[in-house]
Design a protein that fits this description.
CATH superfamily of the largest domain: Zn-dependent exopeptidases
Oligomer: single chain
Number of domains: 3
CATH class of the largest domain: Alpha Beta
CATH architecture of the largest domain: 3-Layer(aba) Sandwich
Structural class: alpha+beta
Largest sheet: 6 strands, mixed
Helix content: 25-40%
Order of helices and strands: HEEEEEEEEEEEEHEHEHEEHEHEHH
Shape: globular
Distance between the termini: 42 Å
């Protein structure tokens, strides 16, 4: 069976358990200043308020990588990476990946083939890992029930730290760094058209906008080549990098190969050899964060990296010509994971060159 890894912070699973217990609300603390509180779980929702660093909040609910919080009389949603959750006991340190598109993984009450089937899982999901016995994994289901799945049908992954858990000295590597974020295409240039008819230009902007918001909160100076849907020449995009003496230039794209609809994965491209480390670090971290196929960091003869004298890369964050991958990359969870991966890659790169 083909297996893909989805990296979800262990804190999510802890909250899942807490929210299914008699005590529904969980205390948390905001870790950044001027954090937007939104009306729904995503950056596309309206801002209904702001929270500031070290403010205590009550976490009421969770959807994907967003927490619903209460601050005074305001209720709304914030990204989980900017909230520290009060917790006690041992932290869950592993989870199990189910990736069953064409088959069904059965969950049994006992760890053997004769155990009574209590549930059937299909699609790509992740579940908290509780214990292992006789080549079976015990997992926690969203209902709060527990059951056993065959070890040979799934994959167990240790948790990866969320961005907020990085040491402060690593976060400081981004301070005052000028990052040019180039949302590919725009205006009359739609970019590729996905299987379902969506334009690449909208998705590149969505990713770029989220990345800029996160980088700003980490002390960097993100500059977007476009802040809405309009056409921008390739020369003008590169001009941003030179004019602002960018510490890094990141061009965001999504790929397409309609003649080969099964092709999938993420790739990062560089032109000048000295910028391979930037491409390689970002590629590694984005793959770790998203679990999509690794198409490697490689040479690419693209104008925005070829004509750029500043550290520059072009990312192709998945194939919109592959319907399964299109559904993944358009999801809020992927957008959070991919932008976190880019940020971690930048941190690794700046640590490398300094």
């Amino acid at each position: 069976m083909k297996k893909k890894i989805l990296y979800i912070p262990s804190l999510s699973f802890l909250l899942l358990l807490l929210f299914n217990s008699p005590v529904f609300a969980v205390d948390g603390t905001i870790t950044v200043d001027n954090l937007n509180i939104r009306s729904g779980p995503g950056t596309e929702y309206d801002v209904v308020g702001q929270a500031h660093k070290n403010t205590s909040v009550t976490i009421l609910d969770q959807t994907g990588t967003w927490y619903k919080i209460k601050l005074g009389q305001t209720e709304g949603w914030v990204s989980q990476e900017f909230v520290t959750v009060a917790q006690s006991g041992n932290k869950l340190d592993a989870y199990v990946i189910i990736d069953a598109k064409d088959v069904t993984v059965q969950v049994r009450e006992e760890p053997h083939m004769n155990g009574k089937v209590m549930d059937q899982l299909k699609g790509q999901q992740s579940y908290p890992f509780l214990e292992e016995k006789n080549s079976w994994y015990k997992i926690q289901l969203p209902s709060g029930n527990t059951g056993w799945v065959a070890k040979w049908l799934v994959e167990k992954i240790d948790t990866v730290s969320n961005n907020k858990d990085q040491p402060q000295e690593e976060k400081d590597l981004l301070k005052n760094k000028v990052i040019i974020i180039d949302a590919g295409h725009g205006g009359d240039d739609t970019g590729t058209i996905s299987v379902t008819g969506d334009y690449e230009k909208y998705l590149t902007f969505r990713t770029s906008d989220l990345l800029a918001e996160k980088l700003e909160r980490l002390g960097a100076i993100p500059i977007q080549t476009r802040t809405t849907d309009y056409f921008l020449t390739l020369e003008n995009r590169v001009a941003f990098s030179h004019a602002y003496q960018a510490d890094a230039f990141i061009s965001i794209h999504y790929n397409s190969a309609p003649e080969f609809p099964e092709v999938h994965g993420i790739g990062t491209f560089y032109y000048h050899d000295q910028y391979y480390p930037l491409a390689n670090e970002i590629q590694k971290e984005v793959i770790k964060a998203t679990g999509l196929k690794n198409r490697e960091a490689r040479f690419g003869d693209y104008f925005v990296v070829r004509e750029n004298i500043r550290p520059s890369v072009l990312l192709e964050l998945g194939f919109l010509s592959n319907q399964t991958e299109e559904n993944i990359v358009k999801g809020d969870q992927f957008q959070q994971q991919a932008t976190n991966g880019i940020i971690r890659g930048l941190i690794q790169y700046f640590d490398y060159i300094e």
